[in-house]
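Hello,

I think I submitted the NDP job twice by accident. Can you confirm which output corresponds to this input? Input:
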Amino acid sequence: MSNQPEHIKTLIIGSGPAGYTAAIYAARADLKPVVYTGLEPGGQLTTTTEVDNFPGYPEGIDGPTMMVQLQQQAERFGTDVRIGMATAVDFATEKGGLHRVTIDSEKEVLAETIIISTGATAKYLGLPSEQRLRGGGVSACAVCDGFFYKGQDVAIVGGGDTAAEEATYLANICSKVTMLVRKDQMRASKAMQHRVTSTPNIDLRYNTQIDEVLGDQVVEGLRMVNNQTGVKEEIKITGLFIAIGHKPNTDIFKGQLEMDDAGYLITEGKSTKTNVPGVFASGDVQDKEYRQAVTAAGTGCMAALDAERYLATIEA
Ligand code: NDP
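Support: Only one job matched these inputs. Its output is below.
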């Protein structure tokens, strides 16, 4: 390890829409941001094809291109974007203290303020056929990709609020939505369950799991199995949505930052402040409800403004 840790004014961890938007604002405010991209530079959007719901792109834009453009916009104002992963943190607890962060288990940096935008990772079932067809009809975001299946038959897996919400969203666009819930009940709130059961084109199947996703290059169908009777059934679909939860990328912050039971960082009121002075959180790492690129970008902006105000108070 280097003996002389680099001193950074504003460290941004993560390079999705939240991280890059924070960088744009921080750079323009002369906060000298350094972005460490993490293992998936550009974040979850780099695994999406078309992004049609980000304002300002009337023809839509593909996810990887959008993230390159966000990076270029951040760099235009002087952001230093580096490939690297924060692997450990040691946050100062008193206001004005320097926060120590280890990059790639070898380099140490000291930051005056930190914006955490490490995002969340969608969970998948792990079936080989599901993994093979990711991007070929298997998606973990109905709001992002549902439109491509307009007028078609699709299926969704999961019984939580996300699955219930996405099933009803899809039912508005698609002709039929088969919903697979592995237990004999849903975990979703009663109100959300009611929305599902009162939507006529949702075919709700309890005690049902996926045996195999069918299709070579793209999804063509699904073989389901009733886990009580063992009876298998094949249906034709063109899209499969996995809605079994997300895992926020917060493992390295355990014991240092307050988080909820699922590991999402807790922020104070309407701000992006964590429980540690000078450490802010934006994007999906602190948001399990909305999880959109545009909401992540919005909280990235807020985090940069919060960081700017924080630095102004310690420099005063
Ligand atoms: P949840 O963890 O609440 O639900 C996950 C669902 O996926 C459960 O039904 C679970 O089944 C199922 N599941 C998990 N693993 C598998 C698997 N391998 N195969 C099949 N099914 C599986 O995640 P959500 O994303 O739905 O919600 C996360 C949080 O966000 C919750 O607190 C929720 O209330 C909140 N939320 C709130 C919203 C709102 O208020 N509008 C909207 C969206 C989310 P099982 O029950 O059997 O474990």
